Amino acid sequence: MSTEATEKGGNPLVIFIISLCAAIVMAGGFAIVVEAFVIAAANLFELGSTFIWVGSGANALLAVWFAIWTFVRSWHVERRLRAGLEVDEPKMSILANLRG
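RESULT FIELD:
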């Protein structure tokens, strides 16, 4: 293995695929667990279908945000590593990870 390939960084297509897969796995797992809690709470406390619809909608929005954040954070970390910098502290803002 040549040191030239490792110093330059990864292929952008590979980084994109890895970031996309990480986003799908993290957000999908999160959404499944939260949806189970929403349905269990609705059944346990007899909250009705309105609670399930509202809870599922909030869960979907949160899962989409989490997927986008995970993708952007992964891309940001790979960009920093390619530049030879250390990994910084995570920021909750999607735009902060895009800028930095």
